[in-house]
Amino acid sequence: MITTIQMKNKVLDIWSILKSERQSGLVKRLYSVNSKINIYCVYQYPEECYGIALSFPKSIRFNLEPFASVSEPVVEIYEDKSFPNCMILCAKIKHLDKINEFSYLCESVIQTILAEKTIVDAVRTFGNTLLRWKNLFECTSGIGLSKEEQQGLYGELRFLKKCLTSTSQLYYDIVQSYVGTNRTMRDFQGKNWAVEVKTTSTNNPQVLIINGERQLDDTLVDNLYLYHCSVEVSKQAGESLPEMVHNIREILKDDVAACSLFNAKLFEAGYLDIHEPFYLKRYYKLRKDSFFCVKDKFPRIRENELRDGVGNVNYSISISSFYSYEVPEQQVFLKCLSND
Which residue in 96, 159, 223, 235 has the most C-beta neighbors within 10 A? Predict the structure, then answer.
């Protein structure tokens, strides 16, 4: 059986069954029999490769060229012998140290694919996901997150935990709004709201680094907020990053879809469970957290204020210069989470 970390999911369960059968070659099993879209969990023996695959008509073209030199995940296309005139698009990995994280990614993308209305949309979604996975696996081949990345992720997860415990909105929708792991311009994004999270551990004078002219630009959203999380970092007192991850998983443990999506987003952020030992001796103790409404004369640079030819502007703002824009935490959740 495959050893799981923190929780099980359906993908891991199917992989375990396929592995126990020890059938040579690539074997597949439908993830759901109640869908018109045929997506499978696959296992290859004796190579011990795990993955997922999507069946689609031969009339749909898929370009394998971007994946020609990719070591993981391995992306291949086979003829689907279960259905006439169909092919199978397969993505699989072999390294067992990433099996758990990969299963979360698979679980998440399967849910997205099954929600598509047409097989053409399903293939497009799977293809776009595979391109993102390609970059993701290349970035997670090191020894974990830097101290700055750990601190930033801690602040984002602290806000996510606040959202999960402050509203009756579906957990899945809340986790889905966490888009910072996709390297988008802001960390949380809804239909007409956004929240940017900044985490600092420095002493006065405190400044925040703003990455790009669009990060604090409220032109396209009705409500834009800045969440500032100020922490003290130590080797003894406080909460570690793995503890924060565990606490959120506990909140989500009865919602398999939301928990799988959360774990997929952790992996996209570069957080792997096998790297936990690197993070256990670094603790965060909250000094203060504050919410600010970004509007009017809030100190920032907006895209339409730049001269022609100027872009990708990074700048710093002093926290003391925008205290007048501070708002209660409850206002943020009322304006944001109630809008979707």
Answer: 159
8 Å CB contact between 294 and 225: yes
- 125 and 47 inside one domain: yes
Asked if 215 and 196 touch (Cβ cutoff 8 Å), the reply is yes
Report how far residue 29's alpha carbon sits from residue 120's, in angstroms, rounded to the nearest whole number. Answer: 21
Could you tell me the maximum CA-CA distance found in the chain, to the nearest angstrom? 68
Residues 149-201: tens digit of each pLDDT: 999 999 999 999 999 998 878 898 999 899 887 666 789 998 889 999 999 99
Residues 153-185: b if buried by 16+ CB within 10 A, e if exposed: bbbbbbbbebbbeebebebbebbbbbbbbeeeb
Q: Which domain holds residue 228?
A: 147-336
Q: Are residues 260 and 317 in the same domain?
A: yes
At residue 48, the pLDDT reads 92
Final residue in a domain of this structure, among 139, 167, 186: 139
DSSP-derived 3-state class of residue 112: helix
Q: What is the pLDDT of residues 8-37, one digit of tens each?
A: 578 999 999 999 999 999 999 999 988 999
189, β-bridge pairs: 194
For residue 265, tell me if it sits in a domain. yes
| pTM, full prediction | 0.74
